[in-house]
Amino acid sequence: MIKTIFFLLLLFCLSCSSDNITRSEKADFYNIYKDIIIRKPAVSLTREKKEAKVYNREWLSKFKQPIILLASEDGENTATLVALGNYRNKLTWVSADGISLSFENGILIATRGYSQDLMEVKYNDLDKLFTQNVLNRFKIYRFLDGKNEYKELTFSCFVKAKKNIYSYFLGLSLKTTKYTEICEAGDIRHTNEYYVLPDTNIVLKSKQWVSEVNGYVIIYNYYAFQNNIL
Amino acid sequence: MFSYRVFIFLKFFISFSLIGINSGNAREEIYETPKILNTYGMPGIIDTPTAEVFPEGQFSVSSSIFGGTIRTNLSFQVTDGVTVSFRYSRIPSASGDHSGYFWDRSFDFHYLFNDQTNYLPSIAIGLRDFIGTGLYTGEYLVATKNLTKNIKISGGLGWGRLSGKNNKANIFGLSNERYAFSHGYGGTIHSKHFFSGTNSPFFSLSYNASPRLEIIAEMSSDDYDMEVSTLRGFERRNDINFGFKYEIARGFSVMGKLMHGDAVGLSGVLALNPRNSPYKSGIEPAPMPLLDNKTLMETQSLMDNDVFFRSAELLELDGIILLAMNIDNKFVNIEILDRNYLNVSQMIGRVARILSKTVPLSVEFFKIILVDYQSSYSVSQIIVERESLRKFELAFDGPAKLWQNVEIQNSSSGINANFNLTDSPATWSIYPDVEIMLFDPHSPINGSLGWEATLSYRLRNSTVINSSIKQPILTALDDIKRGPKSGLPNVRSDFMFYYRDISTRPYISSLTIDQYYKPFKNFYGQINFGYLEMMYAGIRAEAIWKDIKKPYGIGLDLASINKRNTYGDFSILSNSYSTIIGTLYYDLQSDWSIQLDAGRYLAGDYGATFSLSKTFNNGWEIGAYATLTDVKFSTFGEGSFDKGITLKAPLSWFTGKKSQVYRKTIIKPITGDGGARLILEDNKFLYSNIAKYDEKSFRDNWNRVFR
Fold first, then answer.
1. At what angle do helices B307-317 and B344-358 cross, to 10 degrees?
2. Pairing, β B507-520 against β A77-87
3. Which residue among B295, B398, B656 places its CB closest to the CB of A86?
4. With CB atoms counted within 10 Å of each terminal CB, which end of chain B scores lower, N or C?
5. Looking at beta carbons, which residues of chain B come within 8 Å of A104?
6. DSSP states along B63-90
7. Contacts of B453 in chain A (CB under 8 A)
8. Total-model pTM
9. pLDDT of B84-126, one tens digit each?
10. Mean pLDDT calculated for residue range B514-518
């Protein structure tokens, strides 16, 4: 019996294939069992440990491409995203490990590769968000369920603005207007925050809700600094 | 008399419902409710049922043990109101035919008429063990109401086995004698006994002590007549069962119980819902973003000048092989081969995005021809308008708007000439192999563990040699006690001789030359020649007609075969057989697909197989089939006819990554000779391989085109 068990273990270790697809499929198959034993979170944002990294102009100058910095809500994890897509005011930023976030006027409109992706967003007045001080508004978030059908959340939102908030970016203290967007769809609520350069649509920093699974992400728009807007 | 009793019965339900207090509130979507299962794998408390259902699509595996009884159940919530369950049980009995036990298969059905409201309870009807030998046969009507958010009560009336104790006169005015019937060889439906005989009330109460812990109690009317007749069972001291249910993790719960004041028991439930993927919309890396013209020109100026090369390079990063490319004015025509994406819409979205980045701006349409890896022919092609792709990429309702600007067509005939993989034509693999066999009363769970080596060699584009050699290392399958059935040629029921003689020796599981054809548009064919499966060798031909725009297809499957030697070597026996089976496939526009096979089966019997499957758009399929032929039930023997449950689970659902791999399991209660066919690997059947490229497949999953 010991010989048999040894032979089986040896066989397990020697399992292989000349075909890449077969190999990765078998590995995935075994990983399912492994994941059952060692439970993993559905997705982890990051990828870059925040090892006391100093985010200043010197750090930013190393990047030759436009970048934004993405951070988890607790600030523990961060990822740098580069701009890889643009079409009609819609910018798509991609992280090194394949998560992409798309924005329109600084507002998150889609994610990809992020487990419960925000597939589509409908705003009734996206362009007015940062031009009026208080606004009641609606927005629809769409996700995909397991049958590739839409799971739709219609949020009723209240937006309020607070002017002359000083925020710190890359060692600079800047005067911004803070917009707080409080949204509700049944039991699901979120509060987004946008720090906007006064009298513009330029969002310097924001905290935006992605989905029930992913929660919030914090976005630092360093692109504005690279572009010498400031 | 009858109407008066019905009136009393309705009054019971109405008065019961008036106890109710509003407990309704907004609910978030719940996909798995393992705590709702009773020991029969159906909605209930411990033994008694409740008027509840699982979330639609929930698939549960549960097992329960107490007082010598073991019940293992597979349950499925077919629709919002219909729950079904298949059970394999060990029942202690003085007359038990296997060492004082019966090993019994049974099916249950449960239908919820209505959800509970502020004042009215939910009401459900159920049939227990309505197909088969009827050891658990019983029917019930039950009502359930939440008194508060945490307290739930249920009550109902049971017939049959559920009227063993505290029985009263039949409320429908029927005879108080249960209608007796002969179950014959089992496996058939009898209905005359439904709701006949006396009926007994049952009640249950549950209290949610915490979100995970539920304290439960019930008064059960089941007298456990057989179980108390033997020392292997238990003593029924009273009508009351107590217990608790605890949800250990999402979809996994346990139940501890004290049955009738004597037997302590334990149950475990594992529930999953194909609608609720653990990785939601997946964790494959994001697709290539789209660019405006100015940025695109800048980007293309930095890329390789060879459009084919730069496109192939980017496609390869996504696991897609570019076979050919031809730019013709406003069109780029490409032929691609994909072995990774289960979802063709998502794959097409990615291919179109890459083409947007690599082909010159003068190209306005992408014509993408999808070539099948296995057969080298193309089933369908799709034309995508370039500007629409960009315009709707991040738009609300983008996929629906893009759908208006794509065209899906049937591909032309012939085998793809550009199919030329850069790697060696040979592929091989060696992996552990597990085989499990259920429902043998002498050893209900049996199996073997060993290795399987596969070798595949592509002789030509459409000609492949496929082989599989297996060796069980640790096996119990060589000691199956059952013998073959009598009455028909032993075409399948003598399978145990193969396992016995192979034992732990290596054997040829299959060795075939497979030739694929596409002689006409929408017409597909294959010929398999060689050692087709463990028990048979010979030649098989299959032809399918399928238009990708039609929901149906037809097929013909012919085989002329000989029995193989039971040692699994190259030798062939003289017993020859043939099958001729015509098939109608129909993909219903909802989540259902049906298949009707008819013709001559292996044992020379004529008949038909009806299969029904619920599909989930994500690769999951749960279905059932039954084969009725001109073989008499008495000749078929135990089980009366061939039937089974099919379960198909995609790997991508579990990993969140792209993969076309799936595991298919067929749960067959009985293996007989009537209605038997060749047992071939799933990829030897053409239809599913063709249907995955049809218009419905694109349409149903089109929401993923931008994923």
1. 140
2. unpaired
3. B295
4. N
5. 394
6. EEEETTEEEEEEEEE-SSSEEEEEEEEE
7. none
8. 0.89
9. 999 999 999 998 888 899 998 899 999 999 999 999 999 999 9
10. 96
Stronger pLDDT, A137 or B501, i.e. the higher one: B501
Buried b (16+ CB within 10 A) or exposed e, A197-221: beeeebbbbbbbbbbbbbebbbbbb
CATH homologous superfamily for the domain B2-272: monomeric porin ompg (2.40.160.40)
Residue whose tokens read 């069962």: B241
Q: Which helix (H) or strand (E) holds B358?
A: helix B344-358
Q: What stretches of B390-484 adopt beta strand conformation (E)?
A: 406-410, 426-440, 443-460, 463-475
Residues A105 and A121 sit within 8 Å (Cβ to Cβ): no
pLDDT value at B183 more than 80: no
Share of chain B above pLDDT 90, in %: 74
Which domains are assigned to chain A?
2-37 (no CATH), 48-226 (2.40.360.10)
Q: Which residues of B touch A26 (CB under 8 A)?
A: 429, 431
The pLDDT assigned to B35 comes to 93
- Which of B290, B398, B428 comes nearest A120 by C-beta? B398
Distance (Å) from the alpha carbon of B653 to chain A's nearest alpha carbon: 8
Q: What is the pLDDT of residues B38-59, one digit of tens each?
A: 999 999 999 999 999 999 999 9
Place of tokens 């998502």: B346
Q: Which residue of chain A has the CA closest to B619?
A: A147
**Residue among B56, B339, B388, B394 with most chain A CBs within 10 A, to mutate:** B394
Cα–Cα distance for residue pair A209/B454, rounded to 1 Å: 48
| Residue of chain B nearest A94, judged by CA positions | B286
Candidates A28, A31, A94; nearest CB to B286: A94
Which positions in chain A touch B357 (Cβ < 8 Å)?
A: none
| pLDDT, tens only, B238-288 | 999 999 999 998 899 999 999 999 999 999 999 999 999 888 888 899 999
Interaxial angle between packed helices B344-358 and B293-301, expressed in degrees from 0 to 180 and rounded to the nearest 10: 70
Q: Does B615 touch chain A (CB under 8 A)?
A: no
Closest partner residue to A28 among B289, B295, B651, by Cβ?
B651
Contact residues, chain B, for A97 at CB < 8 Å: 285
pLDDT tier at B131 (50, 70, 90 boundaries)?
Answer: confident
Q: Answer whether residue A46 shows pLDDT above 90.
A: no
Q: Give the number of other Cβ atoms within 10 Å of residue B199's Cβ.
A: 28
Interface check B476 vs A, CB under 8 A: no
Indicate whether A164 pLDDT > 90: no
Determine the topology of domain B426-695 in CATH.
Answer: Porin (2.40.160)
The interface pTM score, or ipTM, of the predicted complex is 0.89
Q: Alpha-carbon dihedral of residues A220, A221, A223, A229, nearest 10 degrees?
A: -130
**How close, in Å, is residue A116 to chain B by CA atoms?**
5
Q: How confident is the model at residue B17 (pLDDT cuts 50, 70, 90)?
A: very low
User: Across the interface, which of B290, B474, B617 has its CB nearest the CB of A87?
Assistant: B290
For residue A24, which residues of chain B lie inside 8 Å, CB to CB?
659
- pLDDT tens by residue, B640-650: 899 999 999 99
Q: Which of residues 278-337 of B touch A (CB under 8 A)?
A: 278-292, 295, 319
Q: Is B304 helix (H, G, I), strand (E, B) or coil?
A: coil
* Subunit contact A146:B277, Cβ cutoff 8 A: yes
Phi first, then psi, for residue A18 (nearest 5°) are -80, -10
A102: nearest CA partner in chain B? B394
CATH 2.40.160.40 domain locations along chain B: 2-272
> Nearest-CA neighbor of B393 among B352, B424, B429?
B352
- At residue A37 the predicted structure's pLDDT band, cuts being 50, 70 and 90, is low
